[in-house]
Specification:
Layout (H helix, E strand, L loop, with lengths): L1 E6 L2 E4 L4 E9 L5 E8 L6 E6 L5 E3 L1 H4 L3 E6 L4 E6 L8 E9 L12 E2 L3 E6 L1
Parallel strand pairs: 2-11
Antiparallel strand pairs: 1-3, 3-8, 4-5, 4-9, 5-6, 7-8, 9-10, 9-11
Length: 124
């Protein structure tokens, strides 16, 4: 079992920045690919970014290209999402997810564990 706890969400003005953190506990963190997803009211959960155990990254380039950066610190069992130049359409609940011993992918159904989510609200 892996427990994931997100933090760092909040209210920010358009153009601002936030850094989300997700701390994992339980099994060996470095064995997991980690992903960030988001879900806005009335919309499906959307892949934002993923990172493999060795640092391989992938992004939903259409929505976050050049603005968001995913990173991980295996010594701290933590994955981060640095979000810059935030837009009102980035408003959503952001979730981190873990996928055991496989590369990061964009399909939510392929992740094994999920956090409870953290709200990000971007005002115009």
């Amino acid at each position: 079992q892996v427990q994931l706890v997100e933090s760092g969400g909040g209210l920010v003005q358009a153009g601002g920045s936030l850094r989300l953190s997700c701390v994992a506990s339980g099994r060996t963190f470095s064995s997991y690919a980690m992903g960030w997803f988001r879900q806005a009211p009335g919309k499906e959960r959307e892949f934002v970014a993923g990172i493999g155990w060795s640092g391989t990254m992938r992004y939903n380039t259409d929505s976050v290209k050049g603005r968001f950066t995913i990173s991980r610190d295996n010594a701290k069992n933590t994955v981060y999402l640095q979000m810059n130049i935030l837009k009102p359409e980035d408003t959503a609940v952001y979730y981190c997810a873990a996928r055991f011993n496989r590369p990061p992918v964009s399909a939510a159904r392929d992740y094994d564990y999920w956090g409870q989510g953290t709200q990000v609200t971007v005002s115009s």
